[in-house]
Design brief:
Elements: H1 27-53, H2 55-62, H3 68-100, H4 102-120, H5 126-129, H6 132-148, H7 151-162, H8 168-196, H9 199-206, H10 208-212, H11 214-226, H12 232-241, H13 250-253, H14 258-289, H15 294-322, H16 324-348, H17 351-375, H18 385-401, H19 404-415, H20 420-438
Length: 454
């Protein structure tokens, strides 16, 4: 990997934390931190999987009958609304996490995520309370989206600040392991219920069960997070202040970190465009554009995610050995050169060809899911890490990741070109490649502004 052009790095000037004595972190505490952080991500994507797979049923429950297409669009409209408030959640929870601590804020986001999901399971149907039903659904989705705005940045920061420098990639990879596990659990539960329950039972009461499960999950997650101590990096930063921490100005959090923020947006763009393309859009692409059997398409996606889960920790460990830049760059190069061949395989229509094409894209995606949780927090110094990462991450997800299915569908409709998903991933790969070129390697090094950890 060629050396990146020099960029000013606020982390190691004027004082180089590598000159400090290494801080020894309790391995048992690190494991608890990883579990607590990953569970929150798992809950977020459990809801994502449930909502995506049960969308048709939710349309019948919460919206007026008569037009199935309008019901489905309304359901996904409420789902998309959560993306609109994610940046706002990041602007609130991120700076708060830099001021009062990561652990406290992550406990709050866990409560809000669980409450929002649990509340959906309690909302009466449209037939019972009329227009109040979709309004309550929208309110619950906004609570979920607002809390999610502070979840990923906080969870990745929490794991990164607890991890030994030489194992940060491996430990950070378990955050996305939780993502995959949550999605598979949510989608798998809905698939099982659909097979066991009649359509009437599913519409009447069965749809509530997956959402109500979020209550106990939230209690467990909250218990794990409340048992944790604050991260060593944040504790050291607080002690340096010798008093109550000053509020970090928005100017310092954003304009003072503009180079790192641009890199963050670029990295998150390629990460999330490819993620949402493969895991969210491709099932619909197989069904609506290629007329492939819906059940088989969903099962292929779940199988690809299971494969990704197996590879995930090994890819994270690889990023500790060879560096984050080579691993992320390999993913960008793979999507640039293999997106078209993979989509051509998928378009052949046979189960083997679809599985091969989807599997190839899934393995390339692992380059991002394994390395990003450790690479992104290393872009920012401890003082503004949570806030700056929240802003950059959520802006990029809202503008590019969450809009991927809509944009690609519109491009196919406008051009008639069925290869648009591949071209869109290739464009994202170019943006990600530029970001990788300019980013500083962080593997095996202390986090910016923090002493070494072992």
């Amino acid at each position: 990997m060629p050396s990146a052009p020099a960029l000013s790095h606020p982390a190691r000037t004027p004082h180089d934390p590598r000159a400090s004595e290494p801080v020894a972190v309790d391995p048992a505490l690190v494991k608890r931190a990883v579990k607590a952080a990953a569970l929150g991500n798992a809950m977020e994507w459990f809801d994502f999987g449930v909502y995506s797979y049960i969308a048709v049923t939710l349309g019948k429950v919460f919206f007026p009958s008569g037009n199935p297409t309008a019901q489905l669009l309304s359901t996904f409209g409420a789902f998309a609304a959560a993306f609109l408030v994610r940046p706002l959640g990041g602007l609130v929870f991120g700076p708060l996490g830099d001021r009062v601590g990561r652990q406290k804020v992550l406990a709050v986001t866990m409560i809000m995520m669980a409450a929002g999901t649990f509340a959906i399971g309690l909302i009466p149907s449209y037939a019972t309370i009329g227009v109040g039903a979709p309004l309550l659904l929208l309110a619950a989705r906004l609570v979920q989206g607002f809390s999610t705005g502070g979840e990923y940045a906080g969870a990745s920061t929490f794991i990164a600040e607890y991890s030994p420098d030489k194992k940060r990639g491996f430990l950070g990879s378990w955050l996305e392991f939780g993502t995959l596990a949550g999605y598979i659990a949510g989608a798998g539960l809905v698939t099982l219920m659909t097979a066991l329950l009649s359509t009437d039972d599913l519409v009447s009461w069965g749809w509530r069960i997956p959402f109500l499960i979020a209550g106990p999950m939230g209690v467990i997650g909250l218990y794990l997070r409340l048992r944790l101590e604050e991260t060593p990096a944040f504790t050291a930063e607080t002690e340096k202040a010798e008093s109550v921490r000053r509020k970090v100005p928005l100017r310092e959090m954003i304009t003072g970190q503009w180079q790192a923020l641009l890199l963050c947006v670029g990295l998150v763009l390629v990460f999330n465009v490819t993620d949402y393309m493969l895991l969210s859009y491709m099932p619909s692409y197989l069904t609506s554009e290629l007329k492939y059997d819906e059940t088989h398409g969903l099962l292929v996606v779940l199988a690809v995610m299971a494969l990704m889960m197996v590879v995930q920790p090994f890819a994270g460990a690889l990023s500790d050995r060879v560096g984050r830049r080579p691993v992320i760059a390999a993913g960008c190069a793979g999507f640039l050169f293999l997106s078209v061949p993979a989509l051509l395989l998928i378009r052949q229509g046979s189960l083997f060809a679809i599985a091969l094409g989807m599997g190839a894209l899934g393995l390339l995606l692992v380059c991002f899911t394994a390395a990003m949780p450790s690479a992104l927090p290393a872009l920012f110094p401890t003082r503004v890490r949570y806030g700056s990462l929240s802003v950059g991450f959520n802006i990029s997800v809202s503008l590019f990741g969450g809009t991927t299915p809509l944009v690609v569908t519109a491009l196919i409709g406008a051009t008639g070109n069925m290869m648009m998903p591949a071209y869109y991933m290739m464009a994202a790969a170019v943006v990600g490649g530029v970001a990788v070129w300019f980013m500083t390697e962080s593997a095996g090094r202390p986090l910016p502004g923090s002493p070494p950890q072992r």
